[in-house]
């Protein structure tokens, strides 16, 4: 990088001023040229160092925006409370993660005291995680913009609560399971644009007080029968009537998830890349 005439004048004035302040003699023209060359050399070496390590490929990113890089799992709807006693509520959630595949299957969910669902989950010890298709996205955002303390979101947004199947009561209660009528459970989220419902009970509350992180154990899962395939089951035959999940005469609809980018923008499922043959270490998790 060449130093401009203005930069030369500024450096010359600065060195002259420094000399006056310190009682030293101003730099000679030769010393000034040497200082300019050293500055230019240091700049080049710094750039070359970044290129040598590969750091020049990256730019610093604000730590408080890291969720925009990690968050894009499917945006979810969370149903809590009881349909039987009309305490059921629904909320939008973007912070969640898989913790364990099986024995038992565990999911982490971030739900804090600012949500009405927090009190429902704390009291009942169970919830339903629903995966909406992209057709519901605007409604999902609107649900996240209001509180169940102020409005009945089921009625306001035309969401149908579905009584929870008995499969959830067949499992042993989780560590945080609430007391009372076992059939007063969180409802499933109904509708043709809901891809799946995952019934959960609280397995562990140890991280709730500090991080609002609930460890949930999956006790039941239901997928939309209209989907062309069970999500992630690419080897299923969409027209197989003997397949109770994802197949049958109603199969054929392509349903896509929406993934929140953390700032109000979303990406939608696109092309699927099937690398199961290459994923040799984890064959037990493939069908």
What's the short version?
This protein has 287 residues and is α+β, with helices and mostly antiparallel strands. Helices cover 26% and strands 21% of the residues. It has eight helices and eleven strands.
Please tell me about this protein's structure:
Residues 1-25, 159-186 are annotated as: Disordered. It comes from Aspergillus ellipticus CBS 707.79. Residues 174-185 have a biased composition (Basic and acidic residues). This protein has 287 residues and is an alpha+beta fold. The chain has two domains: 5-57, no CATH class; 64-224 and 257-271 and 281-285, Electron Transport, Fmn-binding Protein, Chain A (Pnp Oxidase, Chain A, Roll). 26% of the residues lie in helices and 21% in strands. It contains eight helices and eleven strands. The chain has helices spanning 5-22, 29-53, 67-70, 116-124, 137-144, 153-156, 167-170, 208-211; strands at residues 76-80, 89-93, 96-100, 106-110, 126-132, 160-162, 188-190, 194-204, 213-223, 258-260, 266-268. The strands form three sheets. It has a seven-stranded antiparallel β-sheet with strand order 2-1-5-8-9-4-3. The chain is elongated. 27% of the residues are buried.
């Amino acid at each position: 990088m060449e130093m401009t005439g203005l930069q030369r004048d500024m450096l010359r004035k600065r060195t002259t001023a420094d000399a006056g302040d310190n009682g030293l003699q101003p730099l000679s023209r030769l010393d000034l040229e040497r200082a300019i060359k050293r500055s230019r050399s240091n700049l080049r070496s710094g750039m070359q160092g970044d290129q040598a390590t590969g750091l020049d490929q990256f730019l610093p990113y604000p730590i408080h925006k890291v969720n925009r890089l990690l968050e894009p799992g499917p945006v979810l709807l969370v149903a809590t409370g009881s349909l039987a006693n009309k305490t059921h509520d629904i909320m939008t959630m973007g912070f969640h993660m898989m913790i364990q595949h099986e024995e038992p299957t565990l999911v982490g969910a971030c739900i804090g005291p600012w949500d009405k669902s927090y009190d429902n989950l704390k009291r009942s010890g169970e919830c339903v995680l629903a995966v909406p298709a992209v057709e519901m996205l605007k409604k999902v955002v609107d649900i996240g913009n209001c509180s169940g303390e102020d409005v009945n979101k089921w009625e306001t947004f035309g969401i149908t609560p579905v009584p929870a199947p008995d499969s959830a009561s067949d499992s042993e209660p989780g560590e945080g399971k609430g007391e009372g009528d076992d059939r007063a459970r969180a409802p499933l989220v109904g509708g043709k644009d809901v891809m799946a419902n995952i019934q959960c009970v609280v397995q562990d509350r140890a991280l709730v007080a500090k991080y609002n992180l609930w460890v949930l154990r999956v006790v039941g899962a239901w997928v939309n029968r209209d989907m062309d395939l069970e999500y992630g089951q690419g080897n299923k035959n969409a027209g197989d009537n003997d397949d109770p999940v994802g197949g049958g005469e109603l199969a054929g609809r392509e349903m896509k998830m929406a993934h929140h980018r953390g700032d109000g923008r979303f990406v939608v499922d696109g092309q699927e890349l099937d690398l199961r043959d290459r994923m040799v270490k984890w064959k037990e998790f493939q069908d």
